[in-house]
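Intended use. Records like the one below are meant for learning the mapping from a protein sequence to its folded structure. Do not use them to infer anything beyond what is encoded.
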Amino acid sequence: MIPLSLGEIAAVVGGTVEGDGTVTVTAPAVLDSRQAEPGGLFVAFVGEHVDGHDYAVQAGRAGAVAVLGSRPTVLPTVVVEDAEAALQALAAHVVARLRDGLTVVGVTGSRGKTSTKDLLAAVLSSTAPTIATTGSLNNELGVPLTMLRSDAATRFLVLEMGVRRIGDITRLTSLVAPDIGVVLNVGQAHLSHLGSREAIARAKGELVQGLAPGGTAVLSADDPRVAAMRALTDRAVLTFGRAEHADVRVLDVVLDRSARPAFTLRAAAARVPVTLPLVGAHQALNASAAAAAGLAAGVPLDTAAAALPAVSLSKWRLEPRDLAGGATLLDDSYNADPDSTRAALDALAAVEGRRRVAVLGEMLELGDGSEAQHRAIGEYAALRADVVVAVGTRPLADGAGERAVAVADNAAAVEWLRGRLTAGDVVLVKASRGARLDEVAAALTSGPHDVLVDRPMDDR
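Structure written out for the chain above:
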């Protein structure tokens, strides 16, 4: 963050200073007092169960020098009526101050946006200082927090942008109009909020409509709803994907025994080989999106290809881990919808192993078609896995038929898995965030694992 005194912050956000207004904030803003850095700003919210102002002392001990909140605290505080609006106003001000030397990239899509953001950050940071969204902090609070991590040295700012309702991305692009907007796909996530894929497409298309003058839309050539967004803008357009007409095209995808993809990226006359340290053929498409955005930002294709093999993804995205006794875990527990679950199941099927176990929980926010979607995923899982452990979802278990093991909750899933996993088994764990299947993954990696080779996996 650029250095700002509390007096300057108060003027920007329309607040008043309680305490020493000459105190200068030099480090990023945080919402969690435990994450405060020396010189940082702690943003306090009043929640249903917790009042952030009560944690100002803890934030100060961690290094925060000031608070932005709705009432005075023990630290010097900028007091405002609406802390969220103030945070956003401050972020917009900071980025506006840096705008001449800064290229801003927005990334959205129903699936793959965090992985693509991570891939793009690897591409851009290979050429210049880059700030990118941490994890999936992609909402009305996460985006301004990421913006506030920018400083005078930053040349690229990569903002993951999520959506739950029409207008969400418009509000985010009002804080800063991206120079480059990447739209990956239009899937079924948040159907319960938006009602239809057409509405989801409208919501995602707000990124294309919110581009800065002279900007570039980077669109999937494989998804018709995304390709149609070309009509929403008079800005330049670059496309990516497997389609023959894609500007950055994926060719010749081959998976190794751990399902890590090697492929060729083609753009105009250039062809470059890429090998990713990631699991799943779908990551080749995400890489093509990152490479296309890199081209729009001035990064040559060969430079992007050289940077991609060094990428590391945010946690819980098909993260491979070795389990005691020789089994392998694919931890994809951050989130799920039908399309991303199929991609994860394809990755599971491609990993070389003795037996494949899919531990699948509920996919949330699918609307009226939820039961049918879960049954269809169960059917698909039965084609990709030897055993399908359905956690708290009867329709998914019904779809998986004879390969299904239905368990009531995460604890029951862990209990069933322990003692049944043997050397060479590959276990996928995936569900929507609300199902908290990361608890299952954590228990498998940290708890006791008795390998009982003589106990058959089909002991249901």
